[in-house]
Write a structure and sequence with these properties.
Elements lengths: L4 H4 L23 E5 L2 E4 H14 L8 H20 L6 H15 L8 H19 L4 H13 L1 E2 L5 E2 L1 H18 L15 E2 L10
Antiparallel strand pairs: 1-2, 1-3, 4-5
Length: about 200
C-alpha cells in the first residue's frame, strides 16, 4: 500500500471518546465497561462502535471491543500528549487519514462517521507516541495511570501497561514485516491493553 505524501505529513491531536460496558459487584457500575477520569464506556456503546467501524469500512477495518476500550480509556491522555509534543491529531486530519485508509483497503466511497473518526484519533495518537519514543515510557505512564485510577469490568478484561506494551510491540513487528511504511498505523487497530479475566466478552470481533 502507498500512502499519499500529503497524508503522510499530516499532523495528529485531541478529544475524548464517550462510550460504556458491563460490571460485577465491586468492579464499577453495572452496565459500564470502563470509567477513566470523565470517560465512561458501556458495553452497548462498544458494540455500536464496533458495528460502526464495520459499516464505515465495508467490513475491512473492524477492531474488537478490547481495542476500542483501550482507545477510549487512554484516548484523551494520548491526544493531550501528542498535542504537547507539537503534533496534534486534529479531527480533520484523522478524517482524511481514515478515509484514505478505508479507500486503500477497498471500501467504496467511505465516509467515516464522527464516532469512528474520534476512535481513530486515539489510535493514531498511540501510534505517533509509540514511534516517537521506542522506549514507550510516555505510553506506559499514561497506561499505568489509567490502570490505577480507572474502573474496568472483568467482562472487558484486566487492563495493564504490560499487556499494552506487548500488544504495541506486536503491532510494530507486524507493520515492519509487512513493509506497510506510511500505513504502519493500521496495525494499531488491534492494539489492546487488556488480558483475559473470567469473561472475555470484549475479545470477540
Amino acid at each position: 500500500m502507498t500512502f499519499r505524501p500529503r497524508l503522510a505529513a499530516a499532523a495528529f491531536a485531541a478529544s475524548s471518546l464517550l462510550l460504556a460496558g458491563c460490571a460485577v459487584p465491586g468492579q464499577g457500575t453495572p452496565g459500564v465497561a470502563l470509567t477513566v477520569d470523565e470517560t465512561t464506556v458501556t458495553t452497548a456503546e462498544l458494540d455500536a462502535l464496533a458495528a460502526q467501524w464495520a459499516e464505515d469500512s465495508d467490513g475491512l477495518a473492524v477492531p474488537d471491543r478490547r481495542a476500542l476500550a483501550t482507545f477510549a480509556a487512554m484516548g484523551p491522555a494520548l491526544l493531550a500528549a501528542t498535542e504537547a509534543q507539537g503534533a496534534p491529531i486534529r479531527e480533520a486530519d484523522a478524517l482524511t487519514i481514515t478515509t484514505a485508509w478505508f479507500e486503500n483497503a477497498g471500501a467504496t466511497d467511505p465516509e467515516p462517521s464522527d464516532e469512528v473518526v474520534e476512535s481513530s484519533r486515539a489510535m493514531l495518537a498511540l501510534y505517533v507516541l509509540a514511534y516517537s519514543d521506542p522506549t514507550f515510557e510516555g505510553i506506559r505512564e499514561i497506561a499505568n495511570r489509567a490502570a490505577a485510577e480507572g474502573e474496568f469490568s472483568p467482562r472487558v478484561g484486566e487492563f495493564s501497561s504490560d499487556a499494552l506494551i506487548e500488544s504495541i510491540n506486536a503491532a510494530v513487528g507486524t507493520a515492519e514485516s509487512a513493509g506497510l511504511g506510511n500505513f504502519s498505523f493500521i496495525t494499531f487497530l488491534g492494539v489492546s491493553g487488556f488480558s483475559d479475566t473470567t469473561a472475555p466478552w470484549a475479545a470477540r470481533g
